[in-house]
Amino acid sequence: MPRRPASERHAATSPASVDTLGSETGNALLDVLTAFHHPTRRWLCELLAVEGPHASWTASLKDGAAYLRGDESARLLVLGLAALNVFVSPVIALGIALRVSSSGWGPGWLGAAEAAFAVGAISGSAVGIRWRVAQPARAGFAALVGQGVCIAGTGVGSRAVLSASMLLIGVAAGAASVWLSGTYQRTIAPSHLGRVSSVSSLGDMALVPLAIPAFGALAAGTSVLLAAVVYGAAMSVLCLWFATRPAIARLR
User: Fold this and answer.
1) Same domain membership, residue 232 and residue 177
2) What digits encode the pLDDT tens for the residues 174-211?
3) Does 180 map to a domain?
4) Which DSSP letter does residue 93 get?
5) Within a 10 A sphere around the Cβ of 31, how many other Cβ atoms?
6) Is the pTM of the predicted complex or chain greater than 0.90?
7) Domain check: are 37 and 89 in the same one?
């Protein structure tokens, strides 16, 4: 049997063939989804629609930033979400371990604190799903004001206060995540969800690695309690500021 020319042998893997295969696969998936829920097809079509399939990551980031500059509500929401982990992550990742270790309570109490946080987060998520608030973004940031108070409580040298604080931190985080994530999905245009999420993730990746060692340095130079109070107070003030912005109140 004669060998085909090289151009024919590689045709199956050409960019055009890959694009066609991807298009056919996507259409087949959408057809299956349509059989169950028509709006799902429309949402996926909007989400998968891109202006340039070969755009660089820098161009995507610039496009996401430009979108946020033109939408005040979306900009404040994304900035608020990006800033939250700066104050929560250091306490959960480092502060609790320092509190337990410096108090000599043993590793079992570290596990108990983490378990209390998990139970609270599950309960808070259930509350957020069941309780339909009129202004979910404002309600989410308001809940996180209280979370800041509980973050400060984790620095207190008491097992009961630590457990209660971690439980309530989880409740606030669970409820706020439901309200804020739902608002985020409704606020950001489907064509820019990926780009805007990249901008938000970049903020997390840039700030959290700086916030954790800063917490450790503050705790080492002063005390775990003072470090927890500083981070908790900063979070409460920040979330109170976001909760009182008119652009956040407009989000439904």
Assistant:
1) yes
2) 999 999 988 988 888 887 887 787 777 777 788 889 99
3) yes
4) I
5) 10
6) no
7) no
